[in-house]
Design a protein that fits this description.
Blueprint: H1 17-34, E1 48-53, H2 59-70, E2 74-79, H3 91-99, E3 105-110, H4 115-120, E4 126-132, H5 138-152, E5 159-163, H6 170-181, E6 185-189, E7 205-207, H7 210-216, E8 219-222, H8 238-245, H9 249-253, E9 260-262, H10 275-278, H11 285-305
Parallel strand pairs: 1-2, 1-3, 3-4, 5-6, 5-8, 6-7, 8-9
Helix pairs in contact: 1-5, 1-11, 2-11, 5-6, 5-11
């Protein structure tokens, strides 16, 4: 088998185009597996994976857990809300205690940017970053790329706009790195207050007008407004935001072309996207969820096989 160039998956920024293509082609094989009557393969039998979630998550945690079980791994679930972290235990102590139980791989979500990178230097286990603060969310970017490729046949030269709260989004940053490595053109769109100053240094164009962005693009990835990460007000109200940057069926129908609609979830229906758009035949939101399991299976399978 082919191997990834990295021992861990900490972010898209530090993996190669070949790594991404290997993960996507491996995910294609696993997608066929999970659509069979018997959905399990013994690929990670005898491998123990710990899911460490220091931040709330439903979809990502369930997706990883299902992917691990489909690969026949042994799984430990750890939630910080009912753990010794509440008693003042450090991240490294928590993880070392878990590793003392002979764990091979850690899937971690943490509210601090760089937590997965920090951990990778301290412990001897494979680390998969399941989201670190507003920094990166690599498996989301990989499943988004897989879903675009599946829908459009390729990513190279496609025009993709990421709309919404770019400033607080780890999905946006990982998607930008991933799509650019695969040859796509990327724009971001949203209120000026939610567009980080550095974004143009990544080779990304900024468009403040939603209709212009939609007329340009082949794919629109609609992000959630991350109110839980906003300590000040970045716009007057959700109603005003949805009037300027919310996507509804009327806007979609007036474009005069079909574009693909994506959303990393969870959706705030009626804010960034209306129900009739989310549930329309242009939306691939549920495909993204299905593809997430296959992509996460591919990532863990390839990391488990990576030679030291």
């Amino acid at each position: 088998m082919s191997y990834l160039s990295q021992k861990h998956l900490l972010g898209i920024k530090n993996i190669t185009k070949n790594d991404i293509e290997l993960i996507l082609s491996t995910a294609q094989n696993f997608k066929e597996v999970i659509n069979r009557p018997i959905k399990k393969v013994p690929s990670l039998r005898d491998i123990t994976v710990a899911n460490l979630f220091f931040e709330n998550s439903t979809r990502t945690r369930l997706s990883f857990e299902l992917a691990q079980k489909r690969l026949s791994a042994d799984v430990i679930n750890f939630s910080a809300s009912n753990s010794s972290v509440k008693k003042g235990e450090t991240l490294v102590d928590t993880v070392n205690n878990i590793l003392a139980m002979k764990v091979d791989m850690i899937v971690m979500r943490h509210s601090s940017p760089g937590a997965a990178i920090f951990l990778s230097k301290k412990v001897n286990a494979k680390i998969v970053n399941a989201g670190d603060g507003a920094h990166e969310h690599p498996t989301q970017a990989l499943l988004d790329a897989f879903s675009i490729n599946e829908k459009l046949g390729s990513i190279k030269d496609k025009k993709i706009v990421i709309v919404g709260d770019i400033l607080h989004s780890r999905v946006a940053l990982s998607n930008i790195f991933c799509l650019q490595k695969l040859g796509a053109k990327v724009k971001v769109c949203g209120p000026q207050t939610l567009i980080p100053k550095y974004i143009t240094s990544l080779g990304v164009e900024v468009e403040l007008d939603l209709k212009k962005a939609l007329e340009w693009c082949d794919v629109a990835n609609m992000l959630r407004i991350q109110l839980e990460r906003q300590d000040i007000k970045f716009f007057p109200s959700l109603r005003e935001y949805s009037m300027l940057y919310g996507l509804n069926k009327q806007i979609l129908d007036n474009l005069g072309k079909k574009i693909v609609i994506m959303h990393p979830g969870p959706i705030n229906r009626g804010v960034e996207i209306t129900s009739d758009v989310a549930d329309s035949n242009q939306s691939i939101i549920l495909d993204q969820v299905e593809n997430g399991v296959a992509v996460r299976m591919a990532v863990m399978y390839l990391l488990a096989g990576k030679q030291e």
